[in-house]
Protein: Vitamin B12 transporter
Organism: Halomonas shengliensis
Amino acid sequence: MNTAQPSRGLAAFALAALPLAVLSHAAQAQNALTAGDDTPQRLNPMVVTAALAPRTADESLSSVTVLDEAMLRRQDPTSLTDLFRGQPGVDVTSSGSFGKSSSVYIRGTSNNQSLLMIDGIRLRSATLGGPAWQFLDPRMFQRAEIVRGPRGSLYGADAMGGVVQLFTPEGDGEPAPRISLGGGSFDTQRYSASLSGAEGSTRYHFAASRFDTDGQPVRRGGDDMGYDNTSALARMSHTLDSGAELGVLALRARGTTEYDESGSLATTDYVQQVAGIYGELPITDSWRSRLTLSEARDESANHAYDSILDTQTRTARWENTLSAGAHEFIIGAEYMNDSVAGSITGSEPFGGPYDIEDRDNKAVFSQALLDFSPLTMQASLRYDDNEAFGEEVTGSLALGYDLDAHHTLRTSYGTAFKAPTFNDLYWPFEDYGDFGSYQGNPDLKAETAQALELGVRGQYQDWFWDVSVYQTDIEDMITTETINGDSRPINVKEARIRGAELSIGTEIEDWTLATALTYTDPEDRSTGNRLPRRATQSLRFDVDRELGEWSLGGSWVAQNHRYEDAANEERLGGFGLLNLRAGWQFAPLWSARLTVENALDKEYVTARFFDGDDYINAGRSAFLSVHFGQ
């Protein structure tokens, strides 16, 4: 295998290339504007996560990236993090490939400082704080929205760095089956099937998938670490004659992942699950009310330590949307309960159960979406009362101004907070012998953040560009204090994260191209060091070309070095990854797809073991699949 080298001058290269990219499309854009072409703007998608209401990307007054169904099908990734890596403002680390622990950093914040939602249902581990991205099969989802910047005033705790929302298909039209099967490197097998459609006023989508691989070593010279995942999805909705709508959703993923425990193979069984039911009622022509009841579960059984953890989040959310001409108002309330069950009383180093295994959060929130064209405004306010960390008030204000028909200037200010996890607060006292001890701290305060952003977007018929700069200040950061080998979490550190993001996308004739450039400066203010595991420079380039029955494409992601530790002494080198893909529509409703991940066979590392060894990711790997259906 080739050893990856740190990326040098990445930002300079990308910025030098930017004028060429802009100039290459300017003439075509001007021609389209002159001709008055009013074809729907494919590159200005509708988003709902940024403002709790449908808005096009330029109207959302947010830095947002949409990964649509066409992109998901073209790239056919084995994991969601493959899609997220290198997107504007997004960084990814992993402890190996195929079902191994992964983290997603949005604008330099930590994995547990951003929120993951599936069709509006929050999914995370209440003990660790962050979601298990690695256990979600990309084939279960139709699209993803990545909103960067704090959204605490809309979603409460954890929405400090941003929000990722995954959407499942709703179903429409005649019954449409879809079947896919394939396999490839590391004795990998992938199967999936789905059925979507509508019957009268009832829409439905059912899907199932299976992923099984022998995996590859996560430590040099180690054993293969396998992974399997079985997922099932059911979604139905029905619209009554009155306009009221009822719907249900259930998504469950379960399986086993193998990992390296001090040089030996160990296994963890897991379950990721969301379920919800909602009802939406048009009370008047200008007032719609929606009630959602949901539950999310994160379960794991670690056989090395004979431990079982089951965290559940149950939520009742009531939203009311009122329209007044061009303006819109949203008023709502939310009740959320987190609970932890199971046993951590197995062999060392785990000990007894948590002292407190249940907590609830009550909240009320409101938002005003005001349109005084060419000036628009979004203002929101939320009050949270949590029995574990007390009361928090968060808010945001965003202003947008249409400079002309195709350019929008925006600025925003927002606050958010991160609630301490069950582990932070209640982890029982553990004596590690010669290694000291660890205990949770029930006196922790919530981490709080405030962020300021300035951005501008150019939206044209066949292409767009978006530039933003921001600063996020985080106070009461939770870190670990160690005295004479005894450790506990405390509130001490402050962080300042500054950054800039550029994204460009175009669809011209049979070409689809997208470029993302990210610069992030995540600084620990108490030391002046970079926050661990964050790259500061990232560049992603995606290109696809349709050639009749064939399609060809590739993605290139380059990132500079990062540090494993807070002291910035353990440096992890930068890398460049090339992924290739090809598709062939060889018969009506039949297609084949070949993907080659890490085509240049680079060895790259984004995290390190406690003993100093690197977590290595998979080298060159190829996967071939055959698909039936639309």
Observations:
- The first strand starts at residue 2 and ends at 3.
- The domain at 2-180+264-545 is CATH 2.40.170 (Maltoporin; Chain A).
